[in-house]
Prior knowledge:
Elements: E1 5-7, E2 10-12, H1 18-25, E3 31-35, H2 37-41, H3 45-53, E4 55-58, H4 61-69, H5 79-90, E5 95-100, H6 103-116, E6 121-126, H7 132-145, E7 149-153, H8 158-169, E8 173-176, H9 180-185, H10 193-197, H11 201-208, H12 213-227
Parallel strand pairs: 3-4, 3-8, 5-6, 5-7, 7-8
Antiparallel strand pairs: 1-2
Helix pairs in contact: 4-12
Amino acid sequence: xMEKIFIRxxxxxxxxxxxxxxxxxxxxxxxxxxxNAEKILNxxxxxxxxxxxxxxxxxxxxxxxxxKQKGLxxxxxxxxxxxxxxxxxxxxxxxxxxxxxxxxxxxxTINRLKVDFPGINIVGYRNGFIDEKAKAELKAFLTEKKPDxxxxxQGTPRQEFLMDELIKTHPALYMxxxxxxxxxxxxxxxxxxxxxxxHLEWLYRLLKEPTRFGRQLALIKFLVLLLxxxx
Length: 231
C-alpha cells in the first residue's frame, strides 16, 4: 500500500519510479495532480482539498527534495512525459478522452497519437475553451461513452476544478496536463537536457517567459522553508 506524505498543505505520493506509479493507478478512479513548490505553498482551500482527495505526485524537484528530507526515495515524474507512459501502458485495453488547448493543437495531438499508438481507442476530444453549456454537454458525453482515462490540459487551477466536477459525474482516471499537448505537437519545447539534468527547468521557463517571475518567487520561499525544515 502506497502511503501519501503530508508536505505543508498537501499530500503527495512518493513514487520511487514510474513503473510503481503505473501499477498503482490501474483501475483507479482518481485525479492525478502534478505537485510542485507552487502547489505546496498554495493557500487556496479548494485546490488543496482536490489534491488531498486524489493522487498528488512529485512533478517538481522541490517536491522531491522535500520528500527526501523526510527520508523517502521519491523521484521526479514529469507529467508532460508520464501521460504518454500511461497511454503506452494502457492503450491496448483502455478508452481515452482528451480535452484542452486550441482546436488546432488538440487535433494535431489526436492525429499524432493515432500514428504513435496504432489502434488507440479515443472516444472523443475537444478544445479547452469550455463554457457552462459545453460543460453540460461534455458530462453527458462522458457518461454515454464511458472513457477509462481522461486527459485535461488547461493549466492550474482551472483544470483541477473542471476534473473535480467531471469525476463526480463520470468516475474515471483523470490527469491534468497543463501545456503538455503543445509540447507533444512540437509547438513548445521542454527545457534542454542540460537544464533538466541540473534541475533548472524552472529557470529555462523563466527565461522563455519572463512574465512567470511573480510565480517563481514561490521557489525562493519554498527553498527557505526547506532549509529550515519547515515543510
